[in-house]
Write a structure and sequence with these properties.
Blueprint lengths: L1 H5 L9 H19 L9 H5 L22 H34 L9 H37 L14 H6 L7 H16 L29
Length: 222
């Protein structure tokens, strides 16, 4: 009986189907531990809600819609718009890189030291604030060009008087004359003293400051 048992061999043969299943499970377990999340790259449209550089299907040459008397200020607005768009593209790309790494769980671009990590966060917040200012500036420029098209450009929205040409040159997107701006600021201070909430009217303090004042001359027709 003992001699017979010496010649007994254990059957360790595994059917092909079972072997393949085990190999598949082992491969899945290995990949689970090293898997990285493939997150689709965010776009400027994802970040801003729209693409400020895309022209609509009905786009026409807007310069042709601007009266000749406003062309001088229109060219200033176009130069300002191009500068803002370049800044917006740069700061958006920087913010998107940070956002993409966060979504993928990649922390390699961040400093591990707490102080350095705080600097990274501050840099990102600063970039986002610049994006917000540049978006607001682009909106003010677009609104100013629309006022050119409908003929209301260069008229103060507070005093209903013409805005002097020097002020339009300094702040071509302005809605207010220097007199109107001062009146607006007085009204805001009065609202604050009364504890009211002066929402809506913000003056010409968007993005690139209030600019210069001007004399009493009319907007130039050149």
């Amino acid at each position: 009986y003992l001699k017979l048992r010496k010649h007994i061999k254990l059957n360790l043969w595994v059917p092909d189907e079972e072997r393949k299943a085990r190999e598949k499970a082992a491969a899945a377990a290995r990949s689970q531990g090293t898997r990285t999340h493939n997150v689709a790259a965010a776009s400027i449209s994802d970040l801003l809600g729209s693409n400020p550089f895309r022209k609509g299907a009905g786009f026409v040459d807007e310069a042709k819609l601007v009266p000749e008397k406003f062309r001088r200020y229109y060219r200033l607005l176009v130069d300002m718009r191009e500068a803002l768009q370049k800044g917006l593209a740069f700061h958006s790309e920087s913010a998107l890189k940070k956002s993409g790494k966060d979504d993928a769980g990649d922390l390699s671009g961040y400093s591990q030291h707490l102080a350095d990590a705080g600097t990274d966060t501050a840099d990102r917040d600063f970039a986002l604030s610049l994006i917000s200012n540049e978006q607001e500036g682009l909106k003010e420029i677009a609104d100013a060009i629309e006022r050119m098209k409908n003929g209301s450009y260069g008229v103060c929205e507070i005093t209903n008087k013409p805005i002097p040409a020097p002020r339009l040159i300094a702040v071509p997107f302005t809605r207010y004359s220097l007199e109107g701006q001062k009146e607006l600021e007085r009204n805001r201070r009065a609202h604050r003293r009364r504890g009211s909430n002066p929402l809506g009217e913000i003056g010409d303090e968007v993005g690139f400051g209030t600019g210069g004042g001007g004399g009493d001359d009319e907007p130039s027709d050149s």
